[in-house]
Amino acid sequence: MTTFTIEMEHAAGDTAAPPRERYWERLREPDALVARDIALVRMLRRATPLVDVGCGNGGFVRACTNAGIDAIGVEAFGASARVTARSGAAVLRAAGEHLPLGTGALDVVRLKEVLEHVQAPLDLASEMLRTLRPGGTFIAYVPTQWSQLYPFPANFYDDYTHVRAFSRVGLLRLLEDAGFERIAIEGYTPPLRWWQRPVGAALSRTFPFLWRAVAAKGDSHA
């Protein structure tokens, strides 16, 4: 099932008291967003596991597993990795910029709202490219320049670990400089409550909260 060897975090036999969760370990991805990404992954080649870098509490990894998709989360923080492991999701503790995975090892890599947290986003994006096989797919979400204006689902500055928001052009240039090809970027505003859905749909077309990018590693990187 898994075509590479990695050292995983395990929950079994872990008798240490659970640490107090940080806020990002309590966040839950909107069901519609998760379902959309799973639908995309189903259309892609899945000879190797999907890797969700910066998986938080492992919610997307568990959703993939429940959908019959082989998936592994990656978390840089030991406490977050243990939270994910205790939830039953497979997780690897590693920094996204230095994944202990072979070059061209993966078919799909997902990076949801991670690039905005790092000082050197090009290093992180380049590492995602390295781990993908030629023709592999990269899925990424980042807050837009308008996210600082939103009262829901959250304001950009509500997250004290944020470094930068991205314009569409800025995100496109980042992915191009990393070496990605066939880049498609669209706006997305995830509603949290039923009455926010029509507002979110309208704002996704005009002033979205997130950019969703889907890009490929070209054959020239073989």
Question: What does this protein look like?
Answer:
With 222 residues, this protein is an alpha/beta fold. The chain has a single domain, classed as Rossmann fold, CATH 3.40.50.150. 27% of the residues lie in helices and 23% in strands. It has an eight-stranded mixed β-sheet, with helices on both faces. Strand 3, helix 3 and strand 4 form a beta-alpha-beta unit. The two termini are 23 Å apart.
CATH class: Alpha Beta
Our count of helices gives 6
* Overall spatial form: globular
CATH topology-level name: Rossmann fold
At CATH's second level, what is the architecture? 3-Layer(aba) Sandwich
Number of strands: 8
Low-confidence stretches: 1-7, 10-17
Residue share in β-strands: 15-25%
Helix content: 25-40%
* CATH homology group: Vaccinia Virus protein VP39
Indicate the radius of gyration in whole angstroms.
17 Å
Report the sheet with the most strands, covering strand number, pairing sense and barrel closure.
8 strands, mixed
Structural class: alpha/beta
- Number of discrete domains: 1
Give the helices and strands as they follow along the chain. EHEHEHEEHEHEHE
Terminal-residue CA separation: 23 Å
Strand order of the largest sheet: 1-4-3-2-5-6-8-7
Oligomerization status of the protein chains: single chain
Look at the structure and give the mean pLDDT: 86
